[in-house]
Every structure is written in C-alpha cells, then in structure tokens.
Amino acid sequence: MRNKYFILLLLLCLGGSKLHAQNSQFSVWGAWFHTQKLSEHWGYAFDGQFRSADKVDYLRNILLRPSVAYHFNKNQSVNVGYAYVTTNGRTPDGEKTFRPESRIFEQFTQVHKAGASIQLSHRFRLEQRYLGDSADDRDDNYFAQRFRYFIRAVIPIKRDSNFSKGTYIGLQNEVFLNVQNKDKVNTHFFDQNRAYVGFGYRFSKKFDMELGYMNQYTKAVSSGTANNVVHLAVYTRL
C-alpha cells in the first residue's frame, strides 16, 4: 500500500510542475554516482554531472561533488562534502557568461525495504551556497542556504529480496527549499522540485545504468519553468 502512495505522489509532482510552469525547456543530463566503503564505518562518495542548456544548445552546468561518509550501520549514514558548480549562460545579445558556485553540505541518508524487494532511500541535505560574480560586471556574489529532501525507490521487474542483477524501475522526487537569504535566489521559500521516472539495468551489486525522464520545476521571481530532462546515470558501488 505504501508503494502505491509513493507512485501517486510522484505522478502528482510531475503533473503539478507542468500545471504551474509558465516556461518550458528541454535538456539532457548525464551523471556518475559513486560510493565506496573504506572500512566498517568510513567511506566516501562522489558524483559528477553534466547538464545542457535548453534545446541542448551548449553545456550549461558542470557539477563535481566529493564527500566523506560515516556509516552507522548498513542502513544509515552521514556525509559531509564540498561541491563545485559552474554555470555557463548567454545574454540576450548572445554573449557568453560564467558563474562559479561553491557549496559545503551535510546530509543524512536512511535506506529501508518496502515490501520484500523494493528499496527506498531518504536523503536530507543542508547546503551552504557561495555564489560568485557572474561575468557581466555586476557585483552579485552572495551566500545562501538550501534544504533538500530526496526520496528514491528501486523496484526490480522480477521480485527479488536480494536484488543483484536484472532490470528495474527507478522512481524518485526531490524538493528544494531556500532556508536563508531566499531574496538573493528567487524570493521564494520553495526553490524547485525534481520528479523522475527511469528504467535501469543492474549488471551486478556494484554497477547500475539507468535512463529516464525528469521534470525539473524551478520557481523564478515571477514565473516558473518546467525543464523536461532526458537523464542518463551510472551508479557504481565498491
């Protein structure tokens, strides 16, 4: 029953984003997510992401995010890390712009089973964002904090309590909230929502590949944008 409620919530997020968005975009994202344990309790994680601009006109974002992990047990962990994000843009005149962002973040992750075979992950992340000046001679660097809640379900096509190989469906949703200096971002407490559905293949317990669709709804000062994203992701675990 809980699984049905999760799927319904995801569909509502997808539909709600489209209803409230005044602008629509299309982009392609690629990502690599890696986690590795070094001992019973310690490990690290890294993800690298590449995101295109609207209509795949150019590479808009590069994100590099390493972190140190402490595992309380196999289902609970905390991470502390750093992220570097580059944002390339274009002015109305077609001139190129560039803006760097540094983030420090802290997160807690809880993993558990829903039924015999479905794995659910909950991630709570707090980010301290340091945004540098954009390349248009404006002094607009600032600091802000953002909270993110992420939930993801991995649903094997063939029910298996010890899922180690085969096809699966990935469902996830993430909500972003501005908790400090929201006036510097978009004046709203709500920042964005990312709803996603994908189809993946688990080659082994150490390697997944997944292709899916993400609806990224971002709130601007006076409007909203729905970004329709083709998302390719690789997951590795050691």
From TrEMBL:
It comes from the Bacteria. Keywords: Signal. The keyword Signal applies. Residues 1-21 form the signal peptide. InterPro entries: DUF2490. This is DUF2490 domain-containing protein.
